[in-house]
Design brief:
Layout: E1 11-21, E2 26-28, H1 34-48, E3 53-55, E4 63-67, E5 76-80, E6 84-88, H2 91-105, E7 121-130, E8 136-142, H3 150-162, E9 167-171, E10 173-174, E11 177-178, H4 187-190, E12 194-195, E13 213-214, H5 219-231, E14 235-239, H6 247-252, H7 280-295, E15 302-303, H8 312-315, H9 318-327, H10 336-349, E16 354-357, E17 370-373, H11 377-385, E18 390-392, H12 395-398, H13 423-427, E19 444-451, H14 459-466, H15 469-478, H16 484-500
Parallel strand pairs: 2-3, 2-4, 4-6, 8-9, 8-19, 9-14, 15-16, 16-17, 17-18, 18-19
Antiparallel strand pairs: 1-7, 5-6, 5-7, 10-11, 12-13
Helix pairs in contact: 1-2, 3-5, 7-10
Bound molecules: ligand TNX.
Ligand TNX binds at residues 307-308, 357, 374, 399, 401, 414, 452, 454.
Length: 512
Amino acid sequence: MVHSLIPAPRRLEARDGLFVAHGQLRITAPAAWHPVIAPFQSCALRVTGHTPLLFSLDGDATIRLHLDESFGREQFSFDINDDIDIRAGGPSGAFYALGALRQLAGNSWWSEEPLENYESLTLPRVSVDDHPDYAWRGVHLDVARHFFDVATVCRFIELAADHRLNRIHLHLNDDQGWRVEIPGWPLLTDVASQRRSSPVGHEMFKVDDGMSHGGYFSAEDLITIREFARQHCVVVVPEIDIPGHTQAVVAAYPEFGNTGEDLEVMTRWGISEHVLNPLPATLDFAEVVVRYVARLFPDSPIHIGGDECPTTQWESSDDARAVMEQHGFTEARQLQGLFTERLARVLRADGHEVLAWDEVLDAAVPEGTVIVAWRGSQKAVEAAERGYDSIMAPLNYTYFDWLSSDQPGEPVALGGPPLVTPWEKVFRFSPLPPNLDESLRPRIRGAQAQLWTEYIATRDHLDYMAFPRLCVFSEVVWGSPHEFEEFSARLRVHLQRLHRRGVRFRPLDTTA
Ligand code: TNX
């Protein structure tokens, strides 16, 4: 047992005795790291009753953080003796080291509320060295099928960061809702952000709740999320999903659709055939919207969607056929490449890296686009062989909207068995596709877990689907999975921390 750290450290050496610091802590750290130390300070205030004093100059301190230029940015080591010395390669390394101290310090350090009886900081005397295997350790959250407010998204980011995940991919639009205010396009919020009804229970029973559901983020909201994430060393990756999954857009602006018919925002789950048309005005619109969202996230990669775009309407549209002819396309599928190429070009000119779901590989894809491989690890292999980097998001391991078990009593989820992903299975996931040539290994940036929210409408349900699978995923993508029995023992201890934090995780042994 390595003091139940999750993810497990590369190296941990335990010594005898405890470190105890009474009263107000004093911390020294490079000034540039102070913002990411703030979350630790708030936590220490809840536990000790004092906000730790934070200085940039070396001096007398309980916790001293130093830059080690030989370290990777997320790498860290620490030594707990009479004081605590932390070395890190950058702010994230420092943040993760302090996170590890919170795990070592005991469950009070996970309390959401100030303690009734303040405690000292008590730690085992250990030394730890750690670094991740993968740069991209992500979690995706669908705020389109069900909208989650700023507070819920920030809490989710905080929990992801506690597991050293460093990317949150926000899925901001879909057939069933548009979730971001765009100046000049008021109907995206007035019309597309609301739906009249949602399915009750499983989609296949075709029962409606008849209750309107909606919501959207203002620019200010997204900046709040972005800055909160930054303080937790998480990069927000916004996604505008185009040209498919856009029935809500077409409901608001029928001129961007293919049939001109009067539509409403989709009230059932599944894939709409109402996709964007490939006409110049529509591509202009897509460009304006995506660049606007991207400007709110100047330091972020931008995801342009591209999944599941049915071509049925393009095939029977004269306009679409004319565009095909103009480009010399022989298949409607190629029209999707017009969106991918245009958006990738302008976003890259604006300084962003561009991501897209693996379906974009079926039409033109500019060099440098990063492929999010969801239909299976083979898609990452294909991307790598064609010269693209990719992020592993295979549905059979990383779709946490799938059932947690095949036992009765699980809340309704996307599919029935065999669409089941127990936490034990997540432990067997490897971000490296099994049949990837060794030379292509650097093309795998990392992996991410997906939380699609057709069947997840509340924060408690989100907790249940995300945890403990996200804890397991964090260990795998950090790159330190141990032996299963040892890991499960560690996970049990870790779940007590999450319990203290108020997380409504799925109990490990419950089958009902
Ligand atoms: C496929 S994965 C989708 C989503 C659904 C999800 C349900 C992907 C890029 N598209 O639209 O929500 O399956 O698991």
